[in-house]
Specification:
This protein has 185 residues and is mainly alpha-helical. The protein is built from 9 helices and no strands.
């Protein structure tokens, strides 16, 4: 037996090959590109994989990386959000609402820190795209995780501190202290 045949029969190689076949079949079920597939005679899984490779190449070209990252963070979630609105259940609605909250928060932070981030992280848009894909994919529930672990605690802390600072008792106490210190000086 040759080395190639030994490799092909190795249990790890067979397991990896089966996983790839499984994921390609899942991709075949999910992606509805049958009209393009019939016109081009190219399997839709190959079309999707070729598109992903093309997007990866676009990320290597720095001026194109920002728009590609933005489109990848917007196009599929927008489509799936519209599908979720039309579906009878609410579990997918929650996923996409939390995704959009995280996406908007990331965009808000980007507007202030983009220069610094790009200076220290030259591969920022690749990292951002991978992060956005993690947020989008239902298997990972990244938007939900990020919302519950980062955004929600920040919002609760800021709301609690603003409520505590705005209570009438603390306002009058602070005012009395300031008046007392001003009159004693």
């Amino acid at each position: 037996m040759s080395a190639a045949q030994n490799l092909q029969q190795h249990p790890v190689f067979v397991q990896a090959q089966n996983k790839v076949k499984y994921h390609l079949n899942q991709l075949d079920k999910e992606v509805s590109l049958t009209s393009i597939e019939t016109r081009t005679q190219i399997p839709k899984t190959y079309l999707v994989l070729a598109t992903l490779v093309l997007l990866a190449i676009f990320h290597l070209i720095t001026p194109v990386a920002a728009p590609v990252s933005y489109v990848m963070g917007f196009a599929l979630p927008a489509y799936l959000s519209l599908k979720a609105l039309e579906s009878p259940g609410h579990s997918d609605d929650v996923q996409w609402i939390t995704y959009w909250v995280v996406f908007a928060s990331l965009g808000f932070v980007e507007t202030f820190a983009m220069g610094v981030v790009l200076y220290y992280l030259p591969w920022y848009f690749v990292i951002k795209t991978v992060f956005l894909l993690w947020l989008q994919l239902p298997a990972f529930r990244g938007g939900y995780v990020t919302y519950n672990r980062v955004i929600k605690p920040l919002l609760l802390n800021s709301c609690a501190s603003s409520r505590a600072a705005a209570t009438p008792d603390t306002l009058t106490d602070n005012l009395r202290d300031r008046v007392n210190t001003a009159t004693t000086e």
